[in-house]
Amino acid sequence: MSRAIRKFEPIRDYWRFTPAACTQLFADRFGQHRITVRAYGNILTSIAFLTGMAAEELSEKERGRDDPDFPLLVTIRAVKAGSSGRGRT
Questions:
Q1: Position 85 in a domain
Q2: Does residue 37 form part of some domain?
Q3: Are strands 73-78 and 35-40 parallel, antiparallel or unpaired?
Q4: Does residue 89 fall inside a structural domain?
């Protein structure tokens, strides 16, 4: 989907692990207020990963920009009901 169209209609790409798909999937199970979804990376870091480049071959500026349209990594933090969310002690 074009970025120009995205301004008018949110992307509903649920066929892979996008931030939107992970938010929908985990919010259904844990509740929207119990999840945190983050996207890291951009189109350049994704291409670098796929071609086997080392992180050091990209500048800090190239690696540092996160683009939610082209994430390399999507992370999810989901907290079960009745849990403090602080992890095991």
A1: no
A2: yes
A3: antiparallel
A4: no
Strand, coil or helix: what is 41? coil
Question: Tokens in use for 24?
Answer: 């929908």
Q: Give the model confidence (pLDDT) of 4-31 as tens digits.
A: 555 555 566 777 888 889 999 999 999 9
| CA-CA-CA-CA dihedral for 64, 65, 67, 71, to nearest 10 | -20
Whether 45 is covered by a domain: the verdict is: yes
**Minimal CA–CA distance to 34: which of 72, 70, 69, 85?**
85
3 state DSSP class of 74: strand
DSSP letter string, 44-58 = HHHHHHHTT--GGGS
Residue 13 belongs to domain spanning: 3-78
pTM over 0.90, yes/no = no
